[in-house]
Amino acid sequence: MSEYIIDTRDVHKVYNPGMDSEVHVLKGIDLKVKKGEFIAILGPSGSGKTTLLDVVGCLLKPTSGEILIDGVLTNDLDDGERAKIRGKKIGFVFQQYNLIASQTALENVELPMRINGKSKNEAEKRASSLLKLVGLGERMYHRPSQLSGGEQQRVAIARSLSNYPKIILADEPTGNLDTKTGKKILETLKELNKKKGYTIVVVTHDHRIEKYTKRIINLMDGNII
Ligand SMILES: Nc1ncnc2c1ncn2[C@@H]1O[C@H](COP(=O)(O)OP(=O)(O)OP(=O)(O)O)[C@@H](O)[C@H]1O
Ligand SMILES: [Mg+2]
User: Would you say the pTM of this structure is higher than 0.85?
Assistant: First the structure.
């Protein structure tokens, strides 16, 4: 059993192998994250941050290497099993929020729970308390277009928490936000880590993250340096 909740061993990712467009993005990543840690992965555009987050989050298969999530080797599992692990253990936060435009904040947060088989009533209750947790108690019936960027990102954070994930993976969560709003989002994540013990990995090229986490990992050309 691994002592780490995220444990990657010599992970490589090659896009379009054998073709002219082949790109070797991850070149032997050993990433170890303990339960309850809040870490940041910093790196320039194109360094492989999103790719790394996607292979850790079971959205993408690595070309080689091992990935253990909460002690389970995920890289050899089939798509269905990987989707299950993703649904149960991982909450994603994306730069573009990825909210459903026609649904209210409440419905957006309910959705992953409904997919996992929770009743409407239960899902609504939890969605409502999660929106309060991220400071959006007054905005539950707003649709994404009626919310500011920072508010939309907080809905996305609430949604990422809906199925009690063990790990939150955030890809440039402040990338589309002004300085002040970005700060609020990082504070929200920091608080979720501190008060609720979520393990959080943020990838970004925003150096302001350094104020919020003790552990920073630098990614450069597919290697951790
Ligand atoms: N599906 C794909 N097919 C081929 N190449 C890809 C694919 N996805 C990403 N790449 C290439 O892999 C490299 C790393 O991409 P990735 O999106 O992981 O970088 P990133 O660090 O997240 O960059 P950014 O900060 O701009 O989001 C880039 O050079 C990109 O062009
Ligand atoms: Mg990216």
Answer: yes
